[in-house]
Amino acid sequence: MKTIMIQGTASDVGKSVICTALCRHFYERGYRVAPFKSQNMSLNSYVTRSGHEIGRAQGVQAEAAGIEATYDMNPILLKPKGEMVSEVIVHGKRWADMPAMAYRARTLEEMLEPVRASLARLAEQVEVLVIEGAGSPAEINLKDRDIANMRVAELVDAPVLLVADIERGGMFASCVGTYELLTEEERKRVKGWIVNKFRGSKELLESGLAWLEERTGVPVLGVLPTIRMEVDPEDSLALQNMTGDQQVEGDKLDVAIVWLPYISNFTDFSPLSHQSACTVRYVQFVDQLGAPDVVILPGTKNTIHDLQWLKANGWMEAIQQAYEHGAFVVGICGGYQILGSVLRDEGQVEGAGGVESGLGLLAVETDFVPVKETRQQTGRLLAGWANQVEVSGYEIHLGRTTRGNGVMPLLRWVDGREDGAISADGRVMGTYLHGLFDNERFVQKWLQFIGEAKGLTLASGPAVDRQQVYADLAEWLRQHVDVERIERIMGIHVDR
């Protein structure tokens, strides 16, 4: 198995996107290729066909690589759910909720074993492994127990490429600082720099790149220009570019997504941001809400905490008023639970305990249970404006929600069970189905229904062709990075 590891000088420098592009490149070259990230801290997750939960980025990268995603591609997933507490997912299943210090004390003794096991299985299955690091390999306070960067490279003897984000400023300092903080053996693994998110004339950068090569002795393999990425972002830092008070122009719907403190799976809404009929914005403060056409409550890793946050910051009244003034309201997973009337956590599954009143826009009640539902799903809509339209996606939740009087189920799964709820007027709906907006036919029907209610003629654009996006990413990489040199670094010499 040939390997390459992409590490970065910081979080959100573009490691996930570059790994996705490399996965697609090797797939197009005819190799059986797979992604790998030993430990991922993310609230964006993905459910495999076998019902195992992994990081969303590795699910996307597997799709780009033309291979079925498995839990071996991300053996450890950490999902923050409270102050210094994370849910620990090991080999796709919930293992424990652990404080950061307790987890850190056990990483090398216990967590490295599932990483080794996954790498061994992948070595028997694939020819090329594209490995993604996490954050930076030079976090001195964490480095002695880091199992996401150089220690993984050592396990499989992988060459390392370091990615730097020039857009945020201070790139040369971050590159040299990262390199200098590595040990001598770790520096020997670093075989190249990739500069990402560059704008402007490359000629103005040449002297700096030459200095970086001379200062570190490591070649710059390419400079990637900033492009609009249709790939799901991995890090919540990416949301900062979509917040605030964007102007809604012409006949477009103003879609406001509430940025909850523990927002999860915000990639659910990426397809909406690509629709010409919508302006999508994430709102952090209640005075940013304005008068939207649609309010969305997304998933959350800590529903009770985020419900209490909504109450404390005036969001409950603001959302109710928006609904009274004609807004459509949607809740996904934890957001669906919040739309209901009662949420019970008497077993302290969420850690809060007790009973909380919800927003009350849907007559549903939720009980939190310790058994986590993780499965891919296919079903049909029961809403009148989209009756029998087929949708697919996946469930990830700990709650069980029951409907009361006055609401109808939103979906019926292929096994006959029902999910979600929709109000009698059709303006409030909730579901446990992540990936709902990836279903083009549903989105068209839903936007048409809202447009008619608002008296707008909406221009509905085509869905994003994900396979074409992956092909374009691979070509973007080949145009701006010396991919042939990367292959030589990996020991790949056969032309396919």
Brief synopsis:
With 496 residues, this protein is α/β, with parallel strands linked by helices. The chain has 14 helices and 27 strands. Strand 7 (85-90) and strand 8 form a beta hairpin.
Structure write-up:
The protein has 496 residues and is α/β, with parallel strands linked by helices. The protein folds into two domains: 2-230 and 468-490, P-loop containing nucleotide triphosphate hydrolases (Rossmann fold, 3-Layer(aba) Sandwich), CATH 3.40.50.300; 237-454, Rossmann fold (3-Layer(aba) Sandwich), CATH 3.40.50. Helix content is 30%, strand content 29%. It has a seven-stranded mixed β-sheet. Strand 4 and strand 5 form a beta hairpin. Helix 1 runs parallel beside helix 2, helix 1 packs across helix 13 and helix 5 (171-180) packs parallel to helix 7. The protein is globular. It starts with a strand and ends in a 6-residue tail after the last helix. The model has no long low-confidence stretch (mean pLDDT 92). Pathway: Cofactor biosynthesis; adenosylcobalamin biosynthesis. Belongs to the CobB/CobQ family. CobQ subfamily. One of its GO terms (biological process) is cobalamin biosynthetic process.
* Main beta sheet: 7 strands, mixed
- Number of H- or I-type helical stretches: 14
Number of domains: 2
Q: Give the tally of β-strands.
A: 27
- Range of strand content: 25-35%
CATH topology call of the largest domain: Rossmann fold
**CATH architectural group of the largest domain:** 3-Layer(aba) Sandwich
Task: Give the CA-based shape.
Answer: globular
CATH class of the largest domain: Alpha Beta
Straight-line distance between termini: 16 Å
Strand order of the largest sheet: 15-13-16-18-27-26-23
CATH superfamily of the largest domain: P-loop containing nucleotide triphosphate hydrolases
Radius of gyration, in angstroms, nearest whole number:
23 Å
Question: Would you identify the regions where 5 or more consecutive residues have pLDDT less than 50?
Answer: none
Task: Tell me the helix content.
Answer: 25-40%
The computed structural class is alpha/beta
- Overall mean confidence score, pLDDT: 92
